[in-house]
Hints:
Elements: H1 3-7, E1 19-20, E2 29-35, E3 48-57, E4 62-65, H2 66-69, E5 73-76, H3 84-90, E6 98-103, E7 124-134, E8 136-137, E9 146-152, E10 165-174, E11 177-187, H4 198-204, E12 212-217, H5 238-257, H6 261-275, H7 283-306, H8 310-332
Antiparallel strand pairs: 1-2, 2-6, 3-4, 3-5, 3-7, 6-7, 8-9, 9-12, 10-11
Helix pairs in contact: 5-6, 5-7, 6-7, 7-8
Amino acid sequence: MTAEEEKNVGQEPVSTEGEDVTLKKDGGVLKVIKKEGSGTETPMTGDKVFVHYTGELLDGTVFDSSRDRNDKFSFELGKGQVIQAWDIAVATMKIGEVCQITCKPEYAYGASGSPPKIPPNATLIFEIELFDFKGEDLTDDENGGIIRRIRKKGESYAKPNEGSLVEIHLEGKCNGKVFDDRDVTFELGDCESFDIPHGIETVVKQMERGEESLVLLKSKYCAHISILQAKESWEMSTEEKLEQGSIVKEKGTQYFKEGKYKQAVVQYKKIVQWLEHETGLLGDEDSKAKALRLAAHLNLAACYLKMKEFVLAGESCDKVITIFYLVLSSSEQ
């Protein structure tokens, strides 16, 4: 008898019935829906799911059942808390759905099995009913104020620390209407300066590179944030641009002194964005605008030199020369 034949002694032929729900489409997890669920939503990675289940060997022997204990089983999806087959199959289920899955050993307990009830290299059959699922609560007291649901898992397990510079795309909606949609780079711990809710910063600290998450925030975790009132550059008056320009210049200077050159660049670029295309200014407004632009480009050049971005430093120096020439021309007239 071959080793392969010895491995399969006592097991029935593996069923090929059902939909293959594995990414590889290798037949490792076959799913049959026995009762349709409701709605269109399915659980996302990190969601806490609540199920009943019964597990059988291929010969019909029941090795475990939450129904026998009359106690629903819960776990966090996609976190490795259950066998791989469960993470795969439950992610395809809707609330109220009952399904049967057939799991090859490599998606269950593998060559080791789970003695004494599950032998080595066992193909398993589970009936699973999904009752509910909910997003991960990131508040300290689990009050439901910050709920995170992972649409797309990240590339690694590394997460940003306090003070890390992060780049995100942020889309905010309230009552179905988009009120914020932008790419933003900011330092963790400094969300207020960029009109980012504290709750979002809490979530970002838990995210992996490349992750996409849906975040539900209660008003308490949006406190002190003015996103709804934030103005685009074209909505700001010249007076507002000059006032805000002076504020962000000082903030950029503070970052520069602390050696946080990337954060400083973000601040100085705001001045350029706000004032570079302001035309027709007269008197004090014109003088202040040119002074702010001159300072912004000078400081950008200094930042780029520190960052060894020499081409960008040169471009900023060219801007300085251009503005300085305009200042001289104005003074001669």
